[in-house]
Write a structure and sequence with these properties.
- It is a single chain.
- It contains 8 helices and 5 strands.
- The chain is of the alpha/beta class and 229 residues long.
- Helix 2 (43-54) links the parallel strand 2 (29-36) and strand 3.
- The longest helix has 16 residues, at 102-117.
Length: 229
């Protein structure tokens, strides 16, 4: 039985669930970390719990950091989520669904958690191809955070190990991610990508995240099992 431990950031969405499956496929025991940051699409927290269990994580932890106190995003403040944008529009600029410093905060929490578990591998489902232009999904950011992790931690400074940030989806299209996830047995019916689901937890099919997801399933030639309005 493997003894390699990793912390996997798990939002409850398609990309992070696939990342957990890939970590497992590489022989890691995944400890999943979900962050309740006050996101309006709170149903993803339950999706994360279910996906963590289904994909064999050895423990699942939820940390609460309420980023609504900072605002500045359609996901954490009273700002409308953009709907019905074309894929060309989605690919231009940084949208209002960007949450200031979110991935920096999430990776910081994952780093602290990893250090307490004596795990030196951190997985994140960041993607720099089929995404909405978020600056904290770029390879340059992840590389610099890895450097910071090895400067800022007792475990690294004392030579216990070197922290590694894994972003296995970074250069994959959404269709490639979905095909890989299906091959690894990911049940995408357990995941939710929508930024603005209804009270029953059904996806809107109109926000940027839904549109990118639907496009990915269409290009992969696979039916999306998510529930839509």
């Amino acid at each position: 039985m493997t003894t390699k431990k990793a912390v996997v950031l798990l939002s409850g969405g398609l990309d992070s669930a696939t990342t957990l499956a890939l970590a497992r496929g590489e022989g890691f025991q995944g400890a999943t970390l979900t962050v309740d940051y006050g996101q309006r699409h709170r149903r993803e927290l339950e999706c994360a719990r279910r996906a963590s269990q289904a994909l064999g994580a050895w423990r699942h932890t939820v940390v609460t950091v309420d980023l609504r106190a900072l605002g500045g995003s359609a996901l954490t403040a009273g700002i409308d989520v953009p709907k019905d944008r074309s894929h060309e529009q989605i690919g231009q600029g940084i949208p209002i669904t960007y949450v200031p410093a979110r991935n920096t905060v999430l990776l910081g929490l994952a780093l602290g958690y990893a250090e307490t578990l004596n795990a030196f591998d951190i997985f994140i489902g960041a993607n720099a191809i089929d995404y909405s232009g978020y600056p904290d999904c770029r390879p340059e950011f992840l590389s610099e955070f890895e450097r910071l992790a090895n400067l800022a931690t007792k475990a690294a400074v004392e030579g216990q190990g070197a922290f590694r940030i894994h972003a296995p989806l970074l250069k994959k299209t959404k269709a490639e991610i979905i095909r890989e996830g299906v091959r690894l047995g990911v049940d995408y019916g357990l995941t939710m990508s929508c930024y603005d689901p209804d009270a029953e937890g059904r996806a809107c099919a109109r926000c940027d995240s839904c549109r990118l997801r639907l496009k990915g399933f269409q290009e992969a030639g696979i039916k999306d099992p998510a529930r839509y309005q």
